[in-house]
Write a sequence for this structure.
């Protein structure tokens, strides 16, 4: 697991945010998301540099569209978001979960 994912996982695991249980590397159809909360139907992706290439953008968009078509909410963050503002990312996730 890349370092930014480890940092988020350390804060998501063990029901640390409003008691919501997250799973990591969770399969949804033929796709795998970094983190998933079944109770809130929330997928979280942490994107590294490779996700910003011209080749991968259409794949990521189609993947996200498929996952959202299953009634799953999708939050996407970058490695930079995590390394520079992990608390802000966690607040964003917590705000989403607060309203579920």
């Amino acid at each position: 697991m890349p370092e930014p994912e480890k940092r988020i996982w350390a804060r998501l695991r063990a029901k640390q945010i409003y008691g919501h249980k997250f799973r990591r590397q969770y399969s949804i159809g033929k796709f795998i998301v970094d983190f998933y909360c079944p109770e809130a139907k929330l997928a979280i992706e942490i994107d590294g540099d490779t996700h910003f290439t011209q080749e991968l953008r259409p794949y990521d968009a189609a993947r996200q569209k498929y996952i959202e078509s299953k009634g799953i909410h999708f939050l996407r963050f970058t490695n930079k978001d995590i390394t520079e503002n992990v608390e802000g990312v966690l607040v964003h996730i917590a705000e989403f979960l607060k309203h579920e």
